[in-house]
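Support case: user asked for a sample of complex input and structure output to validate their parser. Sending the pair below.
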Amino acid sequence: MVDAEDMITRIEQKSRKIESLIKQPVEALKTALEGSPPKTKDERCKSANWNVVHRAIMAIKAVDLMFSSLDPEYYDILMKYLYRGLSTGDRPTCEQCLKIHEKLTQKAGLGCILRALSDTVNTV
Amino acid sequence: MASSVRLYLSCIRNTLEAAMCLQNFPCQEVERHNKPEVEMKTSPELLLNSVVICRNEAEKCLIETSINSLRISLKVKQADELENILTKKFLRFLSMRAEAFQVLRRKPVQGYDISFLITNYHCEEMQKHKLIDFIVQFMEDIDKEISELKLSMNTRGRLVATEFLKQFI
């Protein structure tokens, strides 16, 4: 469908931008998280977007600094991606995701987790 | 190494605190019945997204929630064949006495070693944070128990073998 193809090209553009932004991990993460296509049912879009976000998450070194510059509107969508990362089972991904999850829960509270669990409409 | 256990357990604790929001909900299909919806899975509107929290390739935890019940399934780290057998026997021993634990499930979910089923009735009788403390404590103690069992088994095997082979000296 037109929308899916459109989204895939947009995601590819995003991944190229991420590669160039990899030196500033917070910027890369912000770019990766915004424009996430939550309402799509297409698995390819979701996995393509997940690859982009994954790349940005693994590039983050200083987790604390990251939260001072990330806007609160991105917390919910980041939490959903963290759970997707935790389900992969890959050791470095899981370690990184666990670190970020702890800090994010301290910052955003249990409500953020509950929104990630209960949202069956917008899934990542 | 120790900090990754701590992170894993704190992630599970936070997720459980958020997910343990249970209330009484009688069955929608059959009157006068009250079933744990996470086991039945008949109506999608009563279920939340299930999450898998992996520490590494060997250890993971599946948390499924519904409106009146919560199911937690654990896969314990098993380094070699011996630990595999010890874990299976030990956890089977516990599961068969599930009545005494109240929150334990008699059979683990497919692909996991042990499962807990917490319903709204448990939350009414017992305190929520104490239930979560129990689960996290269980996870910490399981690893210790299995390594103790393995150690004692190796010691005994060594003693038996030494005694037996003495007659051939």
